[in-house]
């Protein structure tokens, strides 16, 4: 029957295919039983992380290394499940058929298989804790005594210093602006006083000159007549 032919081919492909499965079709990842339903790649709320739609290859390689086993573990079983899913199986039949074929090859038991899955989950959780601790150090949230500050911590300290310097310069600028306004006001007042004094002098001078010239003309006129 066609379905059994597909299952046979899937089992053969699982056992003889190389580790590189870049060309093999895959099914959507399943959430292990008992694992909280959390969006993949979700960053903690404390971090303003940019949206990431695809993991970097170095991270994928690192995770693959954590999940690498001896071919008799839950990781190998997952590969068989995905291979048979590509052949058309789904639901309980998929997982039961895959286990029967898996156990027939390496003698695996259900408790041992699920225990292997728990070990992988623990390995991922432990590795994530280590990565998060290193991440907090890089972000400057946790400082290790005696360790050199991270690039992020150094830049954060520089940003803080520059912000303080800028605030101080802003205060100085505001003080200088106030002094400038006061000086400009005083300058305007002094110019007005000076201009008013000059105008007063001009009035006095012109009045005296006019008076002097008037009396001079009169004197010249009358003195010339008497001669």
Structure description:
- Residues 17-43 are annotated as: Disordered.
- Residues 32-43 have a biased composition (Low complexity).
- Keywords: Coiled coil.
- Residues 152-193 form a coiled coil.
- 70% of the residues lie in helices and 0% in strands.
- The chain has six helices and no strands.
- The protein is rod-shaped.
Task: Give a short overview.
With 227 residues, this protein is mainly alpha-helical.
How does the SSE layout of this entry go?
Layout: H1 2-16, H2 57-66, H3 74-86, H4 91-106, H5 110-138, H6 151-226
Biased composition (Low complexity): 32-43
Keywords: Coiled coil
Region (Disordered): 17-43
Q: Which key features would you list for this structure?
A:
coiled coil, 227 residues, 2 domains, single chain
Q: How many strands in all? A: 0
Distance between the termini: 159 Å
Our Rg estimate from Cα atoms comes to 46 Å
Along the chain, the helix and strand elements come as HHHHHH
Query: Which parts are unreliable, with pLDDT below 50 for 5 consecutive residues or more?
Result: 15-47
Determine the strand fraction and express it as a percent band: under 5%
**Shape descriptor:** rod-shaped
Largest beta-sheet characterization: none
Q: Level of helix content?
A: over 70%
- Overall pLDDT score: 81
Count the DSSP helices: 6
Secondary structure category: mainly alpha
Number of structurally distinct domains: 2
